[in-house]
């Protein structure tokens, strides 16, 4: 039987939670869906890390109100936002500087933060690529704008899979509510849904992790090869 070529598609969230990284590692191809409307509720410019009080603490990239499309969304460096990069790095350092793997990844993160990106997607993609490289993701990544677009939510996904040679589309669980699976089937493409259980890992002083934080939290306390093994476990074949 021919091996599946699994494709997943998602907006490039800012320093995303483990669930998105898991979906990428369960796939052979990841497409950054960038030519869509910006959504304030979809963690495109914010994430959560561990807080000093043991609760989640938010990091937010300041953005300008217009334009509305994600791939055109501009980062704001105007007062009072001119020091947001320095503030992010300081906040991350304050929380994780004693974590065992802080010095493995933080210098890479610090270097990435030095660049003054004009566009939010450029920052998000750079940081996501940095995480994928650190965890040695072996698949392909592409931007949705690299391909011809097709109207219709499901039609567009089908078109993107065809253009990347995908034979299987990996969707998040919410896709069950809106995907037209028959359109995939008509093109010989299988649809599967992510099976994700949030990992439980130890953090500072042996405490159990807070769920739904940025994957940075896990990366600060555990080695990359261990994380990759967990993320790839049970990958469809």
Automatic annotation (TrEMBL):
Any Pfam family matching the protein: WbqC
Protein name: WbqC family protein
InterPro entries: WbqC
Organism in which the protein naturally occurs: Peribacillus simplex
